[in-house]
Structure formats: structure tokens, C-alpha cells
Specification:
The protein has 497 residues and is mainly α. 58% of the residues lie in helices and 4% in strands.
């Protein structure tokens, strides 16, 4: 956001758990890319450990806990979110939130002791401390668990536990949103950046069919045909929700759960755990599905929670916990071992991609072009040079400009260390660079204004122009006394002013 900077605190919420990991791994590496990879790899370790500990609630058998925790860590949701939406890949607190909901729903007459209350408070804080969506979904499940407890026990003997858990989860969520609220009070509200409309909760809502579709990277032409057919038939409704696959183990467990619930009903038998698990899934479905309660909340209360399809990781986690619970009932060790092996192989098959040979070559070539180009720019301009990027694109969350994707202007930040770039000022707040942008960046008045405020060069991404930058490049060729720096693919130019 040169020359004035950017206030990223205007984003919808912070993720302090992710920020703490960034600070931790930065102590081992000063390379941002290495730090980013370490954070992503850590999400798998944290997710596996979290689920392994929580599974103690339903089974003491180590083999079950190990297999299920690894299946959860490598769930399709986790793989699909990847590093592009790493705050969602950081989902290790999901099993903790589900565990709290189960604890609240328990049929128990004696009250929790002081140590247990402190533990519940800590776990609740952790469940709300990460991505705020996970705090919301855990909040819903705990509410359902509370209702179940009241109905079954017909007493308020767990009231203190419920208050403690809600206090913890609210405090955890508050840490991620209070800085934005305080900043808004001090600096004034930003009515432009990261504003969500009520309609978006339906657009990005949960679609049940997508829970049961295979992940997009799965092997096998049959699976690919299924995915392609669905995405083609419902193309106008396919967006981020296409990353909602819960995985083969969870799908099979869901079918088994329905059968078990029917059996219990027909035989008039009771199983509190199975019953509550079904209620959890039902509650999340009712709230997060397209046209569900979440849409009503978005219309009349708060519309910031639009990506309700992200609840799919809760479906996966709950069903895997149910799978572990049912597996624990198997007394035959050989049968248990066979089931663990079959499900492990099925999950492994589901998650191992089979990309075409040389699939990375195109990206490697682009990376080499960028390195060469921006290295030359950095040497030519010197330290602390200011570069105005054309065309001007607002930040964040803007549509592509012709063939230039959103956030493409961030390449300057990635490949240079000493240059200040104009892109990245939060829209609605850091509008100085935007106020300078006149005549599409092709007039003497524009050039004079940016030179007067300290810009040393202009950067042009020709992918953003219908004529591939012919007109704007021609203008600066005539305007600049020095030859431009041009990328080897002819897509990027830097003209010194």
C-alpha cells in the first residue's frame, strides 16, 4: 500500500492461533515461504494430535485412535483448503469443540470439580481461538448439547459447566474480533472492505450433495466423471462449496449411523451417544444448509458468516468419532484389524493424487520468469523505491481484470525485499493510491501526481488489458527517457519515471 501503508485489521477477523504459529516458526527461519510451509505442515500434526486426544472419550484402543486421528488429519477438506486458505486448514480445534458439546450433553448427576471446570474453560477458549467459523460451529453444537442435557436430566445441575464453556469460547472468539472493533471505533468504520451481504450465506451455504462427492483430486475416471457431471449441471451454484467432501470413511459411517439409529428406534432401545451424534449432524445441517437458519441469521442479525459450507469438517470429525465409537464395540481383534486396514487403504487411495508428468513445469517456468524480472527491477530501482502498479486494483476481494487474477499484484511483494508497492491498501480505508489513479494511468497529469508524491516507477501487468497492454506500453515508451525493464515473457513492464 505504498506510500501510505495498509490497515489489514479491517479484515473480517484475525486468527491469533495462526499468527502465533507464524511468530513461532519465524524464530527458526527468516524466509517467509519456509515459514508458510512449516505452518501448513504443522496443521496436520496439530489436527492428528487433537483428534487422538479427543478420541479417548470414546475408546482406549490405541490402534483405533491412531488410524482415525490420521484419517482426520488428512481429510479431503484439509487437503482441498491447502495453503490457499490456510486459516481454514488450521482446523485442529474442531475435535475439541465437538468434545465439549459431547461433555455438556452427558447424562451425569454429579457436578464437575474445580479442576474439571478449569480444564473445560481452557478447552473452550482454545475451540474459539482459531478461525472464527470454527468458534461459531462449536457454539452451535454446545447449544444442542445443552438442550439435550436439559431434556434428559430435567435439571440445571450442569449450569455452571455450560456457563464456563460459553464464557471460554466467547473469550476465544472475542480475541479475534475485538481488535477490529476497537480499531473501527478509533479510526471510524470501514463500510467497504470485507462487508458480507445476507445473500452470500446462501451462495456459499452448505449443499448436502457436495458432502458426498469425491474430492476433486481423486484418482479414477469414474469418480472424475461424477464430479464433472455435478459441477456442470449445477455450475452456477458451485463455488467454494466444492471443497466440502467429507471423505469415504465419514460417508460409510454416515450410512451406518442412519442404520443404527433406525435399529434403535424400531427396537425401542436407547443409546445416548448415537442419539446425540445424530442431533449434532441434524443441527449443523439445519443451520448451515442453503436456506437454513444461517440465512435467517444473516438477514436479521449478522451477515459476516457467509461461508457456511466450511462446516463440512465438523461432519467429518463427528462421523469419525462415531466410527471410533462403533469400532470400539468390535471384540474380534482380527476383524477390527481388518476394518482398520481397509479404511486406512481407502482413505489413502482417496487422498493420493496422480498428477500428469511434468505438471509443475509450467509453474516453475513462471516462477523463474518472475525471479529474473523482479531481481532486475530491485537492482535497477534501488532500496526503498516506490512503484505504482497498473492497472490500479482495489484490495481485497475483487474480481479478475481480464486475464489478471485477483491478488496478482502481490507478486512484487513476494519477489522483492526492498521495494514498496502501491497495491494492497485496504479499500474504504487506505484510498490514497486509488485517489491518484486517473485516466487509466495514461496521462501527464497522472504521471506528474504520482511523481510528486514520491513514486519512482510504474509497473504494468499486460494481462489486465484487452489489447495486452499495447496502448499503455506505447504511452510510457514515449513518456520515459529510459528503456523499460521487461519480463522475458513480455507480460510485465517497469518504467522508471
Amino acid at each position: 500500500g505504498a506510500t501510505t501503508g495498509s490497515h489489514l485489521i479491517d479484515s473480517p477477523f484475525l486468527d491469533f492461533d495462526y499468527l502465533l504459529k507464524a511468530l513461532l516458526f519465524n524464530t527458526f527461519s527468516t524466509n517467509e515461504s519456509v515459514t508458510f510451509y512449516l505452518i501448513y505442515l504443522s496443521t496436520f500434526i496439530f489436527s492428528a494430535c487433537s483428534m487422538y486426544i479427543v478420541l479417548r472419550y470414546v475408546t482406549d484402543k490405541m490402534v483405533i485412535r491412531m488410524v482415525v486421528s490420521l484419517i482426520f488429519a488428512f481429510a479431503p477438506y484439509h487437503i482441498l483448503r491447502g495453503m490457499g486458505h490456510i486459516t481454514l486448514s488450521n482446523c485442529w480445534m474442531v475435535p475439541i469443540g465437538i468434545y465439549l458439546a459431547y461433555k455438556i450433553s452427558e447424562i451425569r448427576e454429579n457436578k464437575a470439580g474445580k479442576k474439571e471446570l478449569i480444564l473445560l474453560l481452557l478447552l473452550a477458549f482454545i475451540s474459539g481461538f482459531g478461525n472464527i467459523y470454527y468458534g461459531l460451529f462449536s457454539f452451535i453444537l454446545i447449544f444442542v448439547g445443552m438442550i439435550c442435557n436439559f431434556i434428559v436430566n430435567k435439571s440445571l445441575n450442569k449450569l455452571i459447566e455450560i456457563v464456563i464453556v460459553y464464557l471460554g469460547i466467547i473469550c476465544g472468539m472475542a480475541i479475534n474480533v475485538v481488535p477490529k472493533i476497537i480499531f473501527g471505533i478509533i479510526a471510524g468504520p470501514n463500510s467497504d472492505a470485507s462487508i458480507r451481504g445476507a445473500m452470500e450465506s446462501d451462495f456459499y451455504g452448505l449443499r448436502l450433495a457436495q458432502l458426498f462427492l469425491p474430492p476433486s483430486y481423486i484418482r479414477g475416471s469414474l469418480f472424475q466423471k461424477i464430479i464433472t457431471k455435478y459441477n456442470t449441471e449445477y455450475s452456477e451454484y458451485v463455488n467454494e462449496n466444492s471443497l466440502s467432501s467429507i471423505g469415504v470413511v465419514a460417508i460409510i459411517t454416515f450410512i451406518v449411523l442412519i442404520i443404527v439409529l433406525l435399529r434403535l428406534y424400531l427396537k425401542n432401545e436407547e443409546n445416548h451417544f448415537i442419539f446425540v451424534s445424530g442431533l449434532f449432524l441434524l443441527a449443523l445441517t439445519v443451520y448451515c444448509s442453503v436456506g437454513g437458519i444461517g440465512s435467517i441469521v444473516a438477514s436479521f442479525i449478522v451477515s459476516q458468516f457467509r461461508g457456511l459450507n466450511r462446516v463440512s469438517i465438523y461432519f467429518t470429525a463427528i462421523l469419525l468419532i462415531v466410527f471410533a465409537y462403533l469400532a470400539d464395540k468390535i471384540k474380534n481383534k482380527r476383524l477390527l484389524a481388518m476394518i482398520m486396514i481397509i479404511f486406512s487403504v481407502a482413505s489413502l487411495y482417496e487422498n493420493i493424487d496422480n498428477p500428469p508428468e511434468g505438471f509443475q513445469l509450467a509453474q516453475i517456468e513462471i516462477d523463474n520468469i518472475n525471479k529474473e524480472f523482479f531481481s532486475e527491477v530491485e537492482v535497477a530501482l534501488g532500496e526503498n523505491a516506490n512503484v505504482y502498479q497498473l492497472p490500479f486494483v482495489r484490495f481485497p476481494e475483487e474480481p479478475p481484470v481480464n486475464n489478471m487474477s485477483d491478488y496478482s499484484h502481490f507478486k512484487g511483494y513476494v519477489y522483492t525485499d526492498t521495494i514498496n508497492w502501491s497495491y494492497g491498501g485496504i479499500k474504504g480505508r487506505d484510498t490514497y493510491a486509488e485517489s491518484l489513479y486517473i485516466d487509466d494511468g495514461m496521462s501527464d497529469e497522472f504521471v506528474s501526481s504520482i511523481v510528486n508524491v514520491g513514486y519512482d516507477a510504474v509497473y504494468i501487468d499486460t494481462n489486465a488489458y484487452e489489447d495486452e497492454g499495447e496502448q499503455i506500453v506505447s504511452y510510457y515508451m514515449k513518456k520515459s527517457d529510459k528503456a523499460p525493464i521487461v519480463s522475458s515473457d513480455g507480460k510485465m513492464y517497469v518504467f522508471m519515471l
